[in-house]
Amino acid sequence: MRRYSSTLLPCALLLGACVSQSPVLPISNVVLDSTVQDAAARREQLAQQAETSGDLAQAAAQWQVLTLLMPDEERYRKRLAASRTAIARAAAEHLQQGYAAQRKGDMDGATVAMLKVLALTPENQDAARVLREIERQRIVKIQAERAPRYRLDTGTPAARVARPAEKAGEGVSGYELEQSLELFNAGDTVGGLRDMRRYVDANPRDTTGRQRLSEAVYLRARQLDEQGAQERALPLYEQAIALRGDPPAVWATKAQTIRRALATDYYEKALRIYGSDLATAIRYLEASLRYEPAHTGAALKLQEARRLQDKLRQLDRSPPRR
Fold first, then answer.
1. What is the rounded distance in angstroms from the CA atom of residue 75 to the CA atom of residue 21?
2. What is d(CA 113, CA 99) in angstroms, rounded to the nearest whole number?
3. What is the dihedral of CA 189, 192, 197, 201, to 10 degrees?
4. Would you put residue 318 in left (φ > 0), alpha (ψ -120 to 50) or beta?
5. What HEC string does 170-206 produce?
6. Cα separation of 221 and 173, whole Å?
């Protein structure tokens, strides 16, 4: 009886060890894997259908989802890369087609091509710019065609209507004023200011139009100023002054106050890091003087910093002593 027990015990221990080493897959993981696989199968089918129909953007979106669902699947990453390459190639082709149509004067063809570019690459700034220019040209053409009819209907002598744009809101130039305001208020600050300056140069006697433009720019500058973005506000204050021509005194005072505040801020920042980061301190001092060239403290400190920088460079170039 004792011999039987001693033989059975090792077998029992061996069996227990085998059972304990067997992998056990939780039921929740099995269900999860099945769900992910089903979702991946559906997404793959959608991606293939999109590719077949020529919808490259939709295909790329589906392959992107698949790479997130199954990040270890190399095949999905390759298909996503191929889709993106195809999108870039097609967008470039449509862009060139649009440019060619625009050069030929085929604005409808150019519009269609640029819309195709944006459908593939919504962030494409070149296509968006061309579409804005096409729309601008279309409206200018309409306004130009209306201007002669307006002069004929009013019976105004030709000599008196040679420059119908001198009154804001009339003819092509009136459209240009409104368009520049629209661009600026929509967030295209660079384009809006460019068109505003162009309008003011072409219509120097339109004081009403200049007031409208300058006040819109001044309002944007004041908003940025109130948000604490003084470096962004200052150029707009100065643009408002230039557009107005005869700005209120408070405008110039406001711009000068911001210049001094920025100069002081950069000067103080330079002093704080002068002993630890000389190169950056020099840049801050230079910025201070750009905003206020008469800042004596910044000028003196900058001379000192540059002399110190030259000495340090000489020490770096000198051979080591033996």
1. 34
2. 9
3. 180
4. beta
5. CHHHHHHHHHHHHHHHCCCHHHHHHHHHHHHHHCCCC
6. 25
**Cα–Cα–Cα angle for 90, 95, 96, rounded to 5 degrees:** 100
**Token pair of 238 as six digits:** 């100065």
Whole-structure pTM value: 0.46
Phi then psi for residue 295, to 5 deg, are -75, 100
**CA-to-CA dists, residue 317 to 123, 276, 306, 310, 312, angstroms:** 49, 21, 17, 11, 9
Tokens of 127: 């296509």
Rg (CA), the chain: 35
* 261 SS3 class: helix
CA distance 288 to 265: 8
pLDDT over 50 at 284, yes or no: yes
Token output for 217: 């720019």
Please spell the DSSP secondary structure of 85-149, one letter per residue: HHHHHHHHHHHHHHHHHHHHT-HHHHHHHHHHHHHH-TT-HHHHHHHHHHHHHHHHHHHHHHHHH
Residue-level length of the chain: 322
pLDDT digits 0-9 by tens, 85-107: 988 898 899 999 989 988 888 88
DSSP string, 36-53: HHHHHHHHHHHHHHHHHH
